[in-house]
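Quick start: read one record
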Amino acid sequence: MISKILSGSVIGIEGFDVLVEVDLSLGVPAFDIVGLPDAAVKESKERVRSAIKNSGFEFPIRRITVNLAPADIRKEGPSFDLPIAVGILTSIGAVENSEIENCLFSGELSLDGSIRSVNGILSIVSKAKENNIKRCYVPYENRIEASLVKGIEIIGVKSLKELISHFHGMNAISPTVTDLRDTISEECLEQILNFSDVKGQATVKKALEVSAAGNHNILIIGPPGSGKTMLAKRFETILPKLSFKESLDVTKIYSVASLLNNKNKLISKRPFRSPHHTSSDSALVGGGRIPKPGEVSLAHNGVLFLDELPEFSRRALEVLRQPLEDKEVTISRVFGTITYPANFLLIASMNPCPCGYYGSPHACTCNQNEIAKYLGKISGPLLDRIDIQVEAVYINFDEINDTVKQESSEEILKRVLKAREIQNARYENENINNNSELSAAQIEKYCRLNDECKALLKNIFDKLKLSARGYHKILKVARTIADLDGQEIINQYHITQAINYRSLDRKYWF
């Protein structure tokens, strides 16, 4: 007898359907799994055999063949244990076909029949919802995560025995109903860091405000102790909250990467990833034999902070070029090609030289060759992809002891939100959300300049020998500065400010 059970798996962060076909036939007893299973899937036959026996059912002494369709896509992980077990029990008559009709099953089985949580359940259930599946049976620990997808019935199951009792009507399991407010992580309510803690550095604060308003990448250069890291860590306090769709996308990534610390919570705080400078290129963009998300994907819809930028390996920095431009990263391996989203905002900080004091009141101990070698670790193409470059200056005693209250994160956030609202209204019919995403054609449409601004830009273009990308970056940043000023027309002041944010590479590198 053949039984067919709906299940699912994940490629990247997107779910895909898997049909688990179980056939019991006469012949020499055997248990075979086909359909490109990996080692974890192949081993499921031992877990399924013991789980069925220890749940009080007789395991059939038959030739059992399990096919995971489609057969040309590799199947990974232990999530097929539950659908395989349900398929076998359906084939021997322990479960009626009507009970499994239009239902999806996913979960790992323990030898005693209990059901363990699996990764990527949010992506699997989201795909099931798209396919109009009415009900999903998932591990009890995954039930809240799965219930974030509305419009589909979620049944959290603790054991195989409990599931069969539910089918027989003896101990019916109620669907999981979750109030969205209960799923929001409490960490988003914590607000310890604030821009009011930072003394001085008004220019850097303004640059960070522009960066947050238009989602522009930013590089901060300055001597040790000038507040670069302190400012960067407070940047997330002036970013808008994640929308529900953005939260779901981030939660999917962390679910696939096994990084959901609390599977009952929706990630509602923008990610802030700060990898150490010893991180490899695979750690940054993702990789491994079976590719997993890297830091650029874990920072999706949030911030990737690279402190001490020149201390990262040249190879690690160069692999950032493609995700910075495309907002996604594609990883190719023997087992296939996977694309992960990587729409992050890059904040990078660095010293101007190895000792850190070049250009500051402190005496620099580096010679020109050492400085050139240090700065040479940052390539021109990477610099060209950073919209804003700003200098953090040395802080003197009077600034540190200034008793004047500094502007708070809340005050800056108000202006950022207002600028974002302007962009949301402007790009309502476009497939973008902020100024940093403008294409060349959209720049022509939304960043129109008068003759004076064009003349100013032409002069700077020739003087600084800008690339086409650099020219477009200036226009995007100018558009954001104008939005912060509440101006629809970009004027010379906005252009001048944007140009100032592109001049540091010429000071240090050229």
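The two ends are 75 Å apart (CA to CA).
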